[in-house]
């Protein structure tokens, strides 16, 4: 009896407790087993179950608040034939991120590769800008506040990961991310600084409305590259929150 009790205590202390105490992922997160015959469907249902929590994020897993999603600052520098752009953006706030619709998810666990397609029905974004932009269509330079509504935004993400060792444990890291972003419709406003009669803001707006497609064609590749950097950083923060064996149980 005493031996059995001792054995039971030993098992609890050495096997069960470390598993419970060291578990880094909150228990409300449904994990999907590698062996799950429909792994992708499991991940989608796990994400759907988390949706109500995503506006506030999941601090323990380094998942940032998604609605509103805030980027304190962003620097963009591009110098190409068709565009020279220097932009400093701050207080970027986007509402509507948790309204995403998952169109498709395809994972390849052997290759650690993911393909994801989502639609964001409605995104409302604001940012303070300080921009100097030279494109064939004209030049734009100034500071102010940008506001935009974007509907039916389609985001396709393709990425893969690699396994790295830290402190003797295996972790997953983002290896490569590619995005493709398409915008259904958009309506933007700017309030330019030192624009007492509102003429600057008005002409920028007119310019945008008359050249929506061209402006988006120029801006979207930059948005995509920026999104890839942001996804990589957030992805690595999340993947670094728990070892691979916990994130992806056998
Ligand atoms: C965006 O939509 C909101 C309402 O959903 C509206 O109040 C705001 O004026 C719109 N902004 C722009 C730039 O169209």
TrEMBL record:
Q: Which GO terms describe its biological process?
A: circadian rhythm
Supply the alphabetized keyword list. Answer: Biological rhythms, Signal
- Quick one: signal sequence residues? 1-22
Please provide an example of a Pfam family that matches this protein in its UniProt record. Answer: JHBP
Bilayer-crossing residues are: none
- Quote the cellular component terms of the Gene Ontology held in the record: extracellular space
- Name the protein family: Belongs to the TO family.
The protein's name in its UniProt record? Circadian clock-controlled protein
Q: What organism is the protein native to?
A: Cryptotermes secundus
